[in-house]
Design a protein that fits this description.
Layout lengths: L3 E4 L7 H12 L4 E3 L6 E5 L3 H11 L8 E3 L6 H4 L5 H10 L4 E6 L14 E5 L4 H9 L4 E2 L14 H8 L5 E4 L10 E4 L6 E4 L5 H8 L3 E2 L27 E6 L2 H17 L4 E5 L11 E4 L6 H17 L4 E5 L7 H11 L4 E3 L1
Parallel strand pairs: 1-8, 2-8, 4-6, 5-9, 10-11, 12-15, 12-16, 13-14, 13-15
Antiparallel strand pairs: 2-3, 3-7, 4-7, 5-6, 9-10
Helix pairs in contact: 1-5, 9-10
Bound molecules: adenosine monophosphate (AMP) and magnesium ion.
Adenosine monophosphate (AMP) binds next to strand 6.
Length: 349
């Protein structure tokens, strides 16, 4: 399959290109598109053949449900059996934006889209080109992140092309995304709302709207025997090709330990990469040292994380180390992704 490329800036959508992209979705094809979080791989959410194609293009297990993207709140009525008050409250506070809600699905949503579940994940993104595209596509776009399964989510069209060129009909290039980590997922089908995946919308922001809220305990811990509530979170996502270890502790002890381990690995013939912060980048000796941003700037760290992991892959590094980050605010999302990339390998010093 030959993949077509179009450009569409975030704020002034390329109308003709987006009209064509919408036509591809209506005809059952697949289009990758930018959102404010990461690039999505879209297909018609109400067409089970389209959802099957998404799984195939990603190489993703088909029990891992897709998120349905809409471009106006009222379109949720078609997807959801009954809309609870909490969904109105969250939509009022955070939509359009990087929040996904899990709700009981209606008959209009095929099980192919929900990975066999009776619930559906719904998101209303804020990215103007994404919204124009969803509208052109008929209003219901199922989209997981536009990476091959097991690779970091793509934050630029170039990374989408690396994974998807020749496998999908079109890629809409909207430049670099803003946030860089996937949406926060909140499950509203239980007795108490529960965060299944942390993201830019933090636990505290959700609490301010909903009052009490639970968090899936597998988010930052590898809980023995516990099964993550979002089926996708059980897979070893975001896995770089090199073996990644996180080193946690006070700054000097961490740099010393990472340098020690890096020297040992180099001596053993490994190619070593280090994820450092602006404050520490000059303190490391390794084949490749990346400054992920200033330690206090969690937005920058979130924005750069997946790009750094992909660059490490490109340089064929075999052993990787990262400093740990604070888990307050959006740090919860950063550490959730980093711990997964590291397969929960953490050394405390
Ligand atoms: P991605 O689109 O790559 O961000 O992945 C979508 C995430 O949403 C995966 O982790 C899914 O398991 C999760 N998800 C989608 N639908 C549901 C659902 N109905 N219940 C729980 N988690 C869901
Ligand atoms: Mg994904």
């Amino acid at each position: 399959m030959k993949t077509r490329y179009i450009r569409s800036d975030a704020d002034t959508p390329n109308e003709e290109g987006i009209r064509q992209a919408g036509g591809i979705i209506r005809a059952g094809g697949l289009v990758a598109f930018p959102t404010e979080t990461v690039y999505g791989l879209g297909g018609d959410a109400l067409n089970k053949e389209s959802s099957r194609k998404i799984y195939e293009a990603k190489g993703r297990p088909s029990d891992n449900p897709l998120i349905v993207h809409i471009c106006r709140f009222s379109d949720m009525e078609k997807l959801v059996e009954r809309i609870p008050q909490a969904a109105y409250d969250l939509a009022e506070a955070f939509w359009p934006g990087p929040l996904t809600m899990i709700l009981p699905k209606s008959d209009a949503v095929p099980y192919e889209t929900t990975g066999g579940l009776d619930t559906v994940a719904v998101r209303f993104p804020s990215h103007p080109a994404a919204r124009a595209f969803i509208e052109a596509a008929g209003g219901y776009v199922a989209a997981p992140s536009a990476n091959r399964s097991g690779r970091p989510s793509p934050t630029t069209a170039k990374y989408v092309a690396e994974d998807m060129d020749g496998r999908i009909d079109m890629i809409i290039d909207g430049g670099e995304v803003g946030i860089g980590l996937e949406s926060t997922i909140v499950d509203l089908t239980g007795e108490m709302p529960m965060i299944l995946r942390p993201g830019y919308i933090t636990q505290e922001m959700l609490q301010n709207v909903l009052g009490e809220i639970a968090a899936d305990k597998t988010m930052l811990k590898e809980a023995a025997g516990a099964r993550p509530k979002a089926p996708g979170m059980k897979y070893r996502h975001y896995a770089p090709k090199g073996v990644l270890t996180i080193v946690e502790g006070n700054r000097d002890a961490v740099t010393q330990k990472i340098n020690e381990l890096a020297a040992q690995a180099s001596a053993a013939g490994e190619k070593v990469g280090v994820i450092a912060t602006r404050e520490t980048v000059d303190a490391y000796h390794a084949d490749c040292v990346k400054n992920i941003g200033p330690r206090a700037d969690e937005a920058a760290i979130a924005h750069n994380l997946y790009a750094v992991l992909r660059e490490f892959d490109d340089e064929e590094l075999t052993v990787l180390f990262s400093e740990a980050f604070d888990t307050a605010g959006m740090g919860q999302a950063i550490m959730n992704r980093l711990l997964k990339a590291a397969g929960h390998r953490v050394i405390r010093v």
